[in-house]
Specification:
With about 190 residues, this protein is mostly beta strands. Helix content is about 5%, strand content about 45%. It is elongated and about 115 Å long.
Length: about 190
Amino acid sequence: ANPGGAANNYVDTGVASVTVAQPAVSKIITATNQGHTTGNNVAIGEIVTYAVTVTIPEGQSPSARLIDTLDSGLGFVDIVSITSSSGALTSSAGTFAAIASATSFSSVGAGAVNAGRLMTVNFGTLNNSDTDNATAETLTVIYRVAVLNDSTNVRGGGRNNSAAWSWTDGSVVASAPNVTIVEPTLDVVKT
């Protein structure tokens, strides 16, 4: 039954644009473990602590991963923590502590100088159930990196690394500032 009869034939079309928020990533150096170096200057054997913060948009991020590739001469020590700014962030891969424990470290190239240069953190499908656009939900991944004792790590050499956050629909990348290798100057005096 058509109560309006033939007069009930209103049809219209239109175009609408929808902007979907993208993740954002930042990476900083938070600390080093030697008091005799300053700023981003690091000595052989020094441990550098990095923090990567990812802003997660509302909804689902399938196949979410954080991949960090270090320059040659640096090696991953461990992942300290993964923390969420909100209980609205959950993962199909389990708790963030379980994800941290399952993080993989692998070599990029041959030799000791290339061992442990690649870190992969798999988050599975990440879900942000928050619906308040005014509140950004973030994940912060903190990890430590060692400056390796290798002949390629010489005074004045810069080392960098970048972290890539990827998901099914794309990726974003951030780099921390370079660390600069410092070594003592030795003077031998014969008397």
